[in-house]
Amino acid sequence: MRKYLLVIFVGVNLLLGGVNGRFYKDAEREIDTNGMSAVGDPGMRRNGLRVAFEAWNFCNEVAHEAPDMGSPRAADCFDVSIMNGSDSTLLHKVSEADNKLGIGRTFKGLSTEAMHRPDLYAVEKELYLGSLCEVSDSSKPWQFWMVMLKNGNFDTKAGLCPENGKPKPPFTTTKNFPCFGEGCMNQPTLNHWPTHLLGDGTMRGWFNGTYDLDADIGKGLTNLSFYEVIWEKKLGSGSW
Ligand SMILES: *[C@@H]1O[C@H](CO)[C@@H](O)[C@H](O)[C@H]1NC(C)=O
Ligand SMILES: *[C@@H]1O[C@H](CO)[C@@H](O)[C@H](O)[C@H]1NC(C)=O
Ligand SMILES: *[C@@H]1O[C@H](CO)[C@@H](O)[C@H](O)[C@H]1NC(C)=O
Questions:
Q1: Of 24, 102, 139, 159, which residue is least crowded by CB atoms under 10 Å?
Q2: Long-range contacts of 40-47 (CB under 8 A, 24+ apart)
Q3: Could you say which residues form the signal peptide (predicted)?
């Protein structure tokens, strides 16, 4: 069953783009051919990182949230307070409660329309996280680098994939993208280790998780879908 899970990473190799929740496409177009962002944080050299996570199903929707995970949007954004000597601290701008927000839970700016609709909720949550992360120290405010994760299983019987913007009823096909049954298009689990400043001056954090909702990834990863994105940089030098 599990061997049919396809996991597609888009942008994990920090292709990313200085993604801007609101003007996403415009920001993308500004990435030059070397994959460097022309907006925000070219080369990812900024100490105060802005990174976010988004997951999609096959149809570029959210459809349903994974149990207890909230809406599949999250962010890790902080500024560094540079003190004398070794006493720098990371001032996080997004709480874990913010990252866990999911349908039915309100936040500043959420519309009543989106409250119980996972697709709309994800969009508004992303904008909200963007507002917490926004960097306005240049003429072009920007929010974060985005890590995108997409489920490659297509559940043709779920009726979740619109066609040309119109709802499409379930249909049967045996080709192309295998689905092992109900739930194959689910959203992943998401664990977040917020960026910490370690004793040697390295800053480090990660997102990881799996599409196998019943798996315990602490007990080994054999035959599981598993993704992990780790970011790391020395305070004051180099790039992420
Ligand atoms: C840092 O150290 C310098 C020189 O010792 C001192 O003048 C300054 O007030 C200190 N700054 C802070 C924030 O402690
Ligand atoms: C995934 O993240 C969790 C929570 O931060 C961590 O405890 C775990 O070690 C990570 N798993 C792997 C396989 O790296
Ligand atoms: C992983 O899957 C393969 C192929 O189905 C199977 O032979 C193997 O025993 C599985 N390993 C574990 C640890 O479940």
A1: 139
A2: 40/135, 40/140, 40/142, 40/145, 41/135, 41/142, 41/145, 42/18, 43/239, 44/14, 44/145, 44/233, 44/239, 44/240, 45/238, 45/239, 45/240, 47/80, 47/203, 47/233, 47/235, 47/236
A3: 1-21
* Partners of 138 in the β-ladder: none
pLDDT per residue, tens digit, the chain (240 aa), is: 233 333 333 333 233 333 333 323 333 334 443 445 556 788 889 999 999 999 999 888 899 999 999 999 999 999 999 776 667 899 999 999 999 999 999 999 999 999 999 999 999 999 999 999 999 877 788 999 999 999 988 887 777 777 777 777 777 765 666 787 777 889 999 999 999 999 999 999 999 999 999 888 889 998 898 999 999 999 989 999
- How much is the CA Rg of the chain, to the nearest whole Å? 19
> Who lines ligand 2 at CB under 6 A?
191, 193, 208, 217, 228
Q: Where are the domains of the chain?
A: 7-26+42-234
The pTM (predicted TM-score) of the whole model is 0.79
Check pocket membership of 222 for ligand 3, CB cut-off 6 A.
yes
Evaluate whether 50 touches 41 at the Cβ level (below 8 Å). Answer: yes
**Closest approach atom of ligand 2 to CA 208:** 1
